[in-house]
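In this section we turn from sequence analysis to structure. A common task in structural bioinformatics is to predict how a protein folds when a small molecule is present, because the ligand can shape the pocket around it. The inputs are simple: the amino acid sequence and a SMILES string for the ligand, here magnesium ion. Study the lines below before reading on.
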Amino acid sequence: GGAGAESLDYEVIENYAYREHQAQRGKLWVPYYVVLKWFFSLLIGLGTGLAAVFINLAVENFSGWKYAATFSIIQHSYFAGFLVYIIFNLGLVFSSVLIVTKFAPAAAGSGIPEIKGYLNGVDTPGILLFRTLIGKIFGSIGSVGGGLALGKEGPLVHTGACIASLLGQGGSKRYHLSSKWVRIFESDRDRRDLVTCGCAAGVAAAFRAPVGGVLFALEEVTSWWRSQLMWRVFFTSAVVAVVVRTAMNWCKSGKCGHFGSGGFIIWDISGGQEDYSFQELLPMAIIGVIGGLLGALFNQLTLYITSWRRKYLHKKGSKVKILEVCIISLVTSIISFGLPLLRRCSQCPDSETNPGIECPRPPGTDGNFVNFYCAKDREYNDLATIFFNTQDDAIRNLFSAKTFHEYSAQSLIIFLVMFYSLAVVTFGTAVPAGQFVPGIMIGSTYGRLVGMFVVKFYRRLNVDEGTYALLGAASFLGGSMRMTVSLCVIMVEITNNLQLLPLIMLVLLISKAVGDFFNKGLYEEQAQLRGIPLLESRPKLYMRNMVAKEACKNQKVVSFPRVVKVRDIISVLRSNKHNGFPVVDQGHNGETLVIGLILRSHLLVLLQSKMDFQNNPFPCDMRGISNRHNLSDFVKPISSKGMSIDEIHLTDDELELYLDLAPYLNPSPYIVPEDMSLAKVYNIFRQLGLRHIFVVPRPSRVVGLITRKDLLIEE
Amino acid sequence: GGAGAESLDYEVIENYAYREHQAQRGKLWVPYYVVLKWFFSLLIGLGTGLAAVFINLAVENFSGWKYAATFSIIQHSYFAGFLVYIIFNLGLVFSSVLIVTKFAPAAAGSGIPEIKGYLNGVDTPGILLFRTLIGKIFGSIGSVGGGLALGKEGPLVHTGACIASLLGQGGSKRYHLSSKWVRIFESDRDRRDLVTCGCAAGVAAAFRAPVGGVLFALEEVTSWWRSQLMWRVFFTSAVVAVVVRTAMNWCKSGKCGHFGSGGFIIWDISGGQEDYSFQELLPMAIIGVIGGLLGALFNQLTLYITSWRRKYLHKKGSKVKILEVCIISLVTSIISFGLPLLRRCSQCPDSETNPGIECPRPPGTDGNFVNFYCAKDREYNDLATIFFNTQDDAIRNLFSAKTFHEYSAQSLIIFLVMFYSLAVVTFGTAVPAGQFVPGIMIGSTYGRLVGMFVVKFYRRLNVDEGTYALLGAASFLGGSMRMTVSLCVIMVEITNNLQLLPLIMLVLLISKAVGDFFNKGLYEEQAQLRGIPLLESRPKLYMRNMVAKEACKNQKVVSFPRVVKVRDIISVLRSNKHNGFPVVDQGHNGETLVIGLILRSHLLVLLQSKMDFQNNPFPCDMRGISNRHNLSDFVKPISSKGMSIDEIHLTDDELELYLDLAPYLNPSPYIVPEDMSLAKVYNIFRQLGLRHIFVVPRPSRVVGLITRKDLLIEE
Ligand SMILES: Nc1ncnc2c1ncn2[C@@H]1O[C@H](COP(=O)(O)OP(=O)(O)OP(=O)(O)O)[C@@H](O)[C@H]1O
Ligand SMILES: Nc1ncnc2c1ncn2[C@@H]1O[C@H](COP(=O)(O)OP(=O)(O)OP(=O)(O)O)[C@@H](O)[C@H]1O
Ligand SMILES: [Mg+2]
Ligand SMILES: [Mg+2]
């Protein structure tokens, strides 16, 4: 069980009060609801797109200034430049960790495991709050702008999800930003759909990959898939694409500083390798294997380090967390500045034989090459080109086509080892952190190494090192995150090279297979570590040999009668932590009858409002009962702990009153016979997204059969 | 209810015999099963890829020869050329309709509605047989090669599904192509997964769009989605991509006649429009609206014509069907040859201002322009360029970039009207027929018209007519088939232009929304017409106000006791058509107890084998019972009607014997309480892919509760 993680109720609880409410609704309610759904999808797209533009703008400008300042200072003194660089990084990272630890603790990390958990049916406290949204946005500007070995993609997914869920509950109550008119999403189920849209929007915005976003949300994040939802998610992604593209067009003329250069495709390599020969399949397969191995190792190492951190480090409070991040920032700065200093510079290639490639004029990072600590003018430092550069530019350089021998093998190996270690260490610190971009950088480094080897060994000139770098990136992400289709589409969308699609598929399949041999995917591992009890889509094998009764054999079922004394409710709720209780009533012939399921959260609302208390222990008159409560009172606010029994204070007189549960119980909970195999029960639970299933004795008779024909009746 | 359509059993029936079998399995069974699954995915990819290559090769060569012959003859006499053209077409179409009507009736049409039905849980007789596969392959070569207004993509999906299902049942028994070793897919559920792979392989092969194939299978065809399946489907698609690409490389040097020219991307327009301005969004939205309208109209018209055909024409036997197709072929030939004759030829553009565009040298169809009935040498006939040409070349011309004013508006309008009508009339005839390519041709025609208008009206030179043609194609497909993500990816993959992605998304969203306003998607409409009872993914609204009992209120449940006289079984099975029966037994205290569900098909197998008959009416000894039958005896062969009660012949003595049903019944059928809302029941039925649900009285007590925690136990 997770620390504080609690299940969500994806079921619409069709109790009497709900039905009465529904009956009172006007004719326009359904169209209003549908329109609002689509309108919210639009808003999610707009919001996430704008958030992404804002983050990108901030990050690119901060790093742009940073490198510009550093480069101009090192013309005079390398030491002064070094100091400025360190301080700039430290400042940004410090502000990020401060925001996260002091203001929005749930904003740490990538957030994808938590969102995955949310969409699987587990709520992690705090994960979708307004403050988390703010913390995520500003925190990731600091951490990414500060040059840490992490990306802004995971955080953008989380950002999208936050925006979606805030819309879904009609704004943030705490910050008085809510409106009654839009609070019609009265079940976790509606919110779940919005959050799915938000995830897709996040990826679409991060990579400017709208289709990739849809697929990421559907393959990696959601647990339940519906075709209708796909359409809505798709719409949201399209909106994001339009917003981001418009913003970029607007920024093109330099209005936004360093942001807005480059096309809509982040790392365009459409000029890369056109074709491939059969001989090349072997090195490509090797890239896949390396990706699987390094990816699995990454998952394992981060798992160990994170669990160690949680056990020893992070318990000691936020000061330690802040210190940790600052030290990592220092180390990162020193390594990324210092190591390139030790490398010899190389001669720039002839601009005549390589049109379009320009050596930078100092101070500058324009073009593919960075002049850093080089003696002559027409030289560049290959390690600085990737290490001492913004992430986007570094990846662009690694992917760059038709740039043979740009890097020496030593530089790439040094970078691979150092950056891999930094990425492992940085993972799990108290800053917003995505793993996509580090993964792409690691993967493209060894991919390019393999590419260099192929160029040398096979002596083929149409082999392109940049193409191999792309395959390497795909393989590492596949080996670590274990996605297939979505990753494939994302890789194609960010590089604009469809020709490579079959090759990307190949390395992804290999790296995923190799990785799966060792451990689970990054997000599942992390979810497990954080105590998010994800239900996998398949039952375990041994469940086939168990029956439902065995899964709950030591329980003494705690249930309520239909009309129950308030004092009894209180004592029962105090005595256990169960969240659902069967309600049992007397039938006409005196036999008992299970009439439904009442949720702890509903009971607490009833106890607090006191409106339903009655003097006599007899069934109440249910008519008009829905006017007593607003339906949305019963819905737990997102990401909050919900009420606790200790918050209920009743007088002694009130304790002697009675409460009729009938109008508020869920009258038709799901039931399974006690000797159904647990694998089947698992499937029901998982496929339908349930929270409770009643295990009941075998029925004594069958009232009727329902088949396909019965469900196809027209009204 | 459909004519002969019967539900599938996606449930693994875990009866006693099955469990005993499982217990006897060796340790290696699970790995063997997994390996075989993947091996089959590989084989499906290989098979579908090769089938696609074969069909393409045949079609391109037949049409290549046809046009080459016609062009060389019309140098001397247009009339002789006309005759040859007609006869060639007629011959091919006739062979196709002959194969379909005489040998493989289930091969008519696209097959996608039937496959969709299969994956939704309804078996249409004959749809996945070996003969259907053969009929589909050769039939579609004839119908497409014969120049009818239909495509080969739908048939390829069906082909892939057939290959998959034949593998799944271990070959075709009828043709002695089966092997016991591979017959381990003992449930419809395993076969369903393979068929999903087959569908994806079909689309991947048809459009050389591997990711599009995966998404098509998942968005449009399957009803149940699982992440694991996605990976397998993805693998199959990758295999197809490799097979097709290899074959095309092999054919490049001209070894395969007219096949193999062009790249892996079918209609490459990567040279098209780079960017778009805001003003253009309006005409693009208009394209979307036109697409929605024309698409919905297409669905409606084909629905009417098909139902009319079924009622009046096709009842009269196969001669009428053959005649009908031949007449349509004649009309198509006359129109496509005759109409271009009436058009004036235009001057070829200067090859200096338009490098890369060459006017054809007669006799020839090379390049973008077709010289047909032109007086001078450097002229071309714009209508013939699209009408009197192979489909692939026509689409290539319509999509072609940087070819302004290639077509006159009149030609495009004439083509649009004539081809639309031909496509509507051809749809539903007794030949294999896909709707993708006709849809692309129709859509790109009006798209190009709008593009021409934009060029004229907005006077912008960076607007490209070919790009508008692509958007038109997307809009028509979206308006007719109502897919979103998969169509989007397919369009991008076949044209290699990622820049246009947001625009494609836009027109798709609009056209789908407009189309949905009028009717359902093409495949759903057709499935309904053919009596395939598809269950939509959502319950109807009124189901919320019904309870389970009402859905089956007039039934008197027909059930069996545990041990039952053979004579009684026979008479019950004769007296109704139900496919499942509750089995009710006496409990210890004399009360009745529902112990399971027995399927009609299982009863028939038991009656036919006679091995389980016993003399006494007492429960039998169940041990060792699994040795009596082979588990696969109980599995209904795919696409067959299954056994009927009339095939069972028993002597009078045998009729007096008894049968104990306990070892063969499904001991834990799904149950719902009688007052559960029908909407919920619908969800259970649909999400879990069930065939029977028992409606039972409210339980009298709860034995236990199952929550997330209970399902996360480790072994
Ligand atoms: N009313 C009840 N009577 C007896 N046992 C119960 C009852 N409700 C739940 N349980 C059992 O107690 C354990 C924890 O129950 P709980 O309701 O907290 O569920 P959970 O899995 O923790 O999910 P949630 O997040 O909803 O709390 C489970 O093993 C469950 O079977
Ligand atoms: N054992 C039974 N006793 C009473 N009614 C039944 C029984 N089995 C089915 N029915 C009812 O008879 C009708 C047809 O049943 P049938 O078993 O043919 O199902 P179906 O929907 O046609 O699906 P299938 O394709 O499996 O035949 C349904 O309305 C169903 O509720
Ligand atoms: Mg709990
Ligand atoms: Mg039936």
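Chain B touches chain A through 114 residues (CB under 8 Å). As an exercise, try to locate the residues that line the magnesium ion site and compare them with your own expectations.
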